[in-house]
Amino acid sequence: MFKLKVRSNFSAAHAVTLPGGRVENVHGHNWQLETVLAAETLDRFGMVADFEAVKCMIEEIIVKKLDHTFLNETGFFPKDAATCELVAKWIHDSLSLRIKELRDDIVVESVTLWESPGCSVSYSAK
Ligand SMILES: [Zn+2]
Questions:
Q1: Which of 23, 48, 86, 119 could, after both became Cys, cross-link 4 (CB 3.0–4.6 A)?
Q2: Centroid of ligand 1 to alpha carbon of 63 (angstroms)
């Protein structure tokens, strides 16, 4: 199994409801995203996929929609729960819908999203 990893980033604000019901103040993060694509075989050029094509797809599908937004008001997440977990899942699912445009036989294996240097969530479909 081959795994291709690309890193991207965006800046966005959010506020989440904490256990106990307190809602955080709105605050921003420079989110770091690592996307892992997996393929059993390589294409005829010896690649899982072209890094640049993957990065462009992530830029178009994810970064342009989230960068410099207030995540709670994008409509992609529950208004009171734009959590790192739900953002990671949305990124995974959004990319999975389009990744076959690059190659039929690759999958988005996982998405890891860091909200700060020591805090991340990974999401994979299985
Ligand atoms: Zn936060």
A1: 48
A2: 17
- How far, in Å, from the CA of 124 to the mean position of ligand 1? 21
For residue 13, what are the CA distances in angstroms to 36, 61, 66?
24, 18, 9
Give 70 Cα–ligand 1 centroid separation in angstroms.
11
Please tell me the distance from the alpha carbon of residue 6 to that of residue 15, in angstroms, as a whole number: 27
Q: What is the pLDDT of residues 63-119, one digit of tens each?
A: 999 999 999 999 999 999 999 999 999 999 999 999 999 999 999 999 999 999 999
Map out the domains of the chain with their CATH numbers: 2-123 (3.30.479.10)
Give helix 51-58 / helix 84-98 axis angle, nearest 10°.
120
Look at residue 126 and tell me whether its pLDDT is greater than 80.
no
Report CA(14)–ligand 1 centroid distance (Å).
6
Distance between CA atoms of 111 and 52, rounded to whole angstroms? Answer: 18
